[in-house]
Predict the 3D structure of the following.
Amino acid sequence: MESARQWIYSLLFFIFTIATLHVLDTLIISTRLTTNYQNIKLKKHPHLPLRFRSDGTFKILQVADMHYGNGMVTRCRDVLESEFNYCTDLNTTHFLRKMIQIEKPDLIVFTGDNIFGTSATDAAESLFEVFAPAIESGIPWAAVLGNHDQESTMNREELMSFISLMDYSVSQTFPSTKVNSDSKEQQPMTNIDGFGNYNLEVWGAPGSYLSNSSILNLYFLDSGDRAIVHGVRTYNWIRESQLSWLRGVSKGFQVYNHRDNGSMLINLWTFLRSQ
Ligand SMILES: *[C@@H]1O[C@H](CO)[C@@H](O)[C@H](O)[C@H]1NC(C)=O
Ligand SMILES: *[C@@H]1O[C@H](CO)[C@@H](O)[C@H](O)[C@H]1NC(C)=O
Ligand SMILES: *[C@@H]1O[C@H](CO)[C@@H](O)[C@H](O)[C@H]1NC(C)=O
């Protein structure tokens, strides 16, 4: 008799446990474990193509060598002794945010040493912080790397991939080439030295007769980090593969524009960093 009752209690307890787990699962656990595809955050894209304004201007804000570390705990270098205690990476952020507000550029270009590898303990975190003012502004921005960017937790390829996936970034790890001359499909061209070689087209002002054409072509080249040449430690340089890509793209634009109308303007503006 006693054992039968125990048996029933055990059974009831078992059923109660299962029921409780089931309720918990449907109400709390399963919603946290399964992915709701509607909530996945995708990269925010800027409005493209880049274009001249109706007044014929296109303003670029170029920023180099922010040398961002760990934010508030990383002190400024090369400031007066009296300023040292009151200057951190946050001053750089403040300055950049102010420059963007004052200048209202059409494109922001970061030319390397964006983060300072030896002070940045987590490259991704420092990248989020250093580019935050550009991302907040919603203005398209592009970046290339310096020699200090990769000294933290990511190599140059990882850095460029990460940067190209950030909101409003128009940066690319590799240049893209058309699959064939008539196709609109693009493929990354990976057989080139460096990470962060790409070009950006700037089209004519809306409503103008050049509104459907690229009239300014901006080239971004990766000048690499360090190198040892004949036992001497020096900086790296632009390789032939990069130049030949640049010549090819430039030639393509000349042919294209000649066919359309010989009067179009080709400007060659190359973003490089001097180390
Ligand atoms: C950095 O920012 C702080 C807080 O705004 C300010 O007090 C300080 O003067 C700034 N330092 C420099 C060197 O500009
Ligand atoms: C540009 O392309 C749009 C859409 O295809 C077209 O309506 C417009 O007339 C074109 N403008 C010029 C100047 O070619
Ligand atoms: C081509 O250029 C000429 C000036 O040389 C200009 O008058 C004409 O409108 C242009 N045509 C087109 C389609 O852009």
